[in-house]
Structure formats: structure tokens, C-alpha cells
Amino acid sequence: MEKSNFQLSFDNCKLIIDVVRKDIKNIHLAVYPPTGRVRIAAPLKVNDDAIRLFAISKLGWIKRNQRKFEGQERIAPREYKQRESHYFQGRRYLLNIIETDKTQKVILKNKKFIELHIKPDTPTAKRHEILTEWYRAQLKKQIPAIIEKWEKVLKVKVADWQVKQMKTKWGSCNIEKKRIWLNLELAKKPEHCLEYIIVHEMVHLLERHHNERFLYHMDTYLPNWRQLKTELNKLPVSHADWGY
Q1: Which domain range does residue 15 map to?
Q2: For residue 241, what pLDDT is reported?
Q3: Residue 37 lies in a domain
Q4: Could you tell me if 11 and 65 lie in one domain?
Q5: How many domains does the chain contain in total?
Q6: Can you give the pLDDT at residue 32?
């Protein structure tokens, strides 16, 4: 796989396009939230001029899709202070800081509060670490049942799955190892959005590329996947630049 990028200028604006050359038959174009990052996947033999002409022919489509993300709510960097907003499984909660000399922990309270039990004068970085590990543990509780359900439906087997903070994707799939990676940020999204991402990655075990066969499987097994994708990409996003 070869990676590069090129710049287009139009309407007094400059557009950077990431180009990835793969062993595929057709050119694929995508615009990713939250920043409207543009990516073209092209066959290995397609030259730069052909890719540039393709991009120019799609400028209208690119700008329309980028505009969809311009009004998307952005979450400022968290300070982990009293009554700060945090999201969990699609719901908004208020952070309740409880100082303690006992074990530091996180407790979900009354569908309204996330209680963060910490020692006095705990720095912001440590507060972030404690809450992040709680998110990780909660997400890991959700995932197995969803994978097991869809293994039966799709008749595939996931050999391994992991959770990590991902900067550019909601998920990924190593087809050879049958391993799925899921973005830790999915802990903050509704479970049906998490399920959509898991199904998307598992369908890659049936079809490697985002081609017509892949879309056929998605349409067959999860007919409302496009609505779920739109919902996920409209939800508030963190200050980090990542999307799907």
C-alpha cells in the first residue's frame, strides 16, 4: 500500500486530499467527519494525473459532504471538574467529584451523574486516566455479546478484538488475523451505533474492500446501516480529530 497526498485549489480555497494506492479495481472517494478530511483509495496502476482529474470531477460532492460536518457540535477538552458534561452510551451526564482517601473509582448514579471518586488534589491528567479506564472497562462489557450475536448471523468468526484510542477511525479489521479494533470513544455513543461499527468491521471478513459486494452484505444484514452511520457522525465529537 502506498500513501501520498496532493493539493487542489478552487474558489480561493485549498483542499488537501490523502491518496492511498491499493490492490483494488476502482477508485473510491470518502469524506470523513469531524473535519471533512478527504481520502481517495486508488488502484496501484492509476497515475497522479488520473487521480487529480477524478478529484476535480467530484469537487461539488466533496464540498457538499464537508458542509455536513461544519455545524457538528464539538466538545472542548475536558477539565474533569464539578458538573462538567460527559457522555456515556449516548446519554449526557454531569460529573460529580467526590474526594476520598479510599479507592479511586467511577460510579454511574441515577442516570444523571457520573461520580468520580478521587483523592484530594488529584491532577487533571490522573482524573482523565481514571475516567478513561472506566470507559474502557464499560465498553469491553458491551462488545462480546454483540460480536457473538453477529458471528451467528454472518457465519464468520472473530479471533480477537481490542479497544484502543484511535485517531482516524471508529474501527478497523485485520482480515488475515480476524482481529477487530474498536475506538474507545464508542463507549460514549449509543449501543446501536457501536453495533453498527462492529457489524461493519465483521462484514470485512466477508469482503475486504468497500465495494458493491460489501454494500450488498451491509444492506442485507443491517438494512438501516446508513441511518446509523449518519446518526453516529452527527453526534458530538471530542476535540481530537478522528472520524469514520
Answers
A1: 2-70
A2: 41
A3: yes
A4: yes
A5: 2
A6: 78
201 CB-near residues (< 8 Å, 6+ apart): 171, 172, 173, 180, 182
pLDDT of 242 reads: 41
CB atoms within 10 A of CB 3: 9
- Check: CB of residue 135 under 8 Å from CB of residue 88: yes
15 and 112 share a domain? no
* Amino acid 11: pLDDT: 57
The C-alpha cell of 81 is what? 471538574
Q: Name which of 58, 59, 17 is nearest 41 in CA terms.
A: 17
**Residue 75 falls within a domain, yes or no?**
no
Under-50 pLDDT residues of the chain = 239-244
Q: State residue 70's pLDDT score.
A: 64
Given 70, 103, 121, the domain boundary residue is 70
Residue position matching grid coordinates 455479546: 145
pTM greater than 0.70: yes
Residue with cell 443491517: 222
Q: What pLDDT sits at residue 37?
A: 83
Residue 226 lies inside a defined structural domain of this protein: yes
Q: Residue 239: what pLDDT? A: 43
Q: Both 97 and 209 in a single domain?
A: yes
| pLDDT value, residue 244 | 39
